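Notes on consecutive records. When two proteins share a document, each keeps its own sequence and its own C-alpha cell line. Never mix them. Below: protein one.
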Amino acid sequence: MLYITYAPGPGPRACLGEGLARTELFLVLVTLLRRFQFVWPKNAGEPDLKPVFGLTISPQPFNLEVRFREKEKERP
C-alpha cells in the first residue's frame, strides 16, 4: 500500500461558507436591532439568571416586548 503524507498537514477543516454565514448573521441581527426595540416588560420583575441544565445549558424562559422603532425624520 502507498500512504501519502502531507508534511505540514492540510490544517484544520474549515467550512468554506463560514465567513458568509457570519456576515449574514451579523446583517440579520443589525437589521432587527435597527427596526425594533427589545424592552423588558414592567410587570416581569427581575430576570432569573439560573441556568437550565439539559443537553445544553440554556437560560430560564422569559418574555420580552418587541416594538417597532419610530422612523427618524429625514434631515434637510
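Protein two starts on the next line and is unrelated to protein one.
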Amino acid sequence: MMNTKPSEPTVHDLASEDDRQWFLDHRNREYRLREPLPGEVRTVPGRTALVVVRRVHPKARMRLPFYVEWPKPAGEAPEYIAEGFFKHCTSLDPRISEMVGAMREACASAPNQEAARS
C-alpha cells in the first residue's frame, strides 16, 4: 500500500510562501530584503545572513542569500535599498540576470499555468 500522507513543507517551501504573501500585501514593491528563515541558509560566524528577493513575475520570485558584517537594521528596508542589494548581487554573477530574463520569458509564455515557484 502506498503512503499518501502529504509531505511536510520544506524551509524553502515556507520561505517561498512567505515571500509570495509579502508581495501580495506589498503590490507596489519588486524587491524585498529580509532575514532568512531558520535553516534557509547556512550560518557564517561573524556574518549576518540576509536574503534579497526579487519579484520577477506575479507568480515567480528569485531569492539571493548574502552575508554582511553588520546586523540587519530594524524595520522594513525601503525598495531602493533592497533593489540596490539585488543589483549588487547580480553584478557579481551575470548569470543571475540571465536567469531573471529566462524566468520572465517562461512566465509570459505560460500565463494560464502556475509559474515555477521561487
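For the record: The chain has one domain: 11-109.
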